[in-house]
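To close the section, here is one more complete example, presented without commentary so you can practise reading it yourself. The ligand is pyridoxine-5'-phosphate.
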Amino acid sequence: MAKLGVNVDHVATLREARKTDYPDPFVAARTAVGLGVSCITVHLREDRRHIREQDVSRIRGIPSCRLNMELAADEDVVAFALKTRPEQVTIVPERREELTTEGGLDVAANPRLFSELAKRFQEKGITVSLFIDPEARQIEAAAKTGAEAVEINTAEYSETKTERDSLAALARVERAAKKARSLGLVVHAGHGLNYKNVGPVAAIEILEELNIGHSIVSQSVYDGFEEAVRTMMRLIESAGKKKG
Ligand code: PXP
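Output:
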């Protein structure tokens, strides 16, 4: 059954909007860990638009926090991650002008780059996950890099406007998850998941972790962060149980 990984980037986005020292992604992460989430995810972007090194280091120190660091193949950030040693890194593509990660990695076009990167992390005992679109050729390429896991991009599913498109996109995610699993990969999913659309994805039994950020931080404006995390955990759990 899928577990919730909480991405706290947008707590830092709110802080950076005014360059204050609040709200603090560390406090949000500590709260989520206290509620028993599967991991805390932070994306240290090349432009440091939200999360900064200091945030990652402080979150790293939270007892029993499994840290998943999202990062691009940027040498500065890679060096920092190798030094910080999170439990997992999720390698993502990154463009400066994008609002958020747009699309998965093209592993098929750059197999050597990702194999070498994966090896560097694995030598330090860090698990490697590659963020990819639900496409067979990307999954096959990801499996060949030696990475332990993939995160299937759910952006297309999340952005669909009709029931029919949503079901088709969901089927692509499920097919991709099954393929990845059959190649021995641990399978995660994420991007754009929210309180309305998470259920069908959480019901895909193969998925081990759903990484969710923006919708939880947004919901916390109404309900408080603790309640927003709890509600998402409940939704994921009940979708998993229904299926089982
Ligand atoms: N997974 C990956 C690889 C991402 O880049 C992001 C966005 O930072 C997420 C999951 C979380 O997406 P969202 O903020 O839309 O929940």
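Once you have examined the tokens, check your reading against these statements. The chain has eleven helices and eight strands. Residues 163-182 form the longest helix (20 residues).
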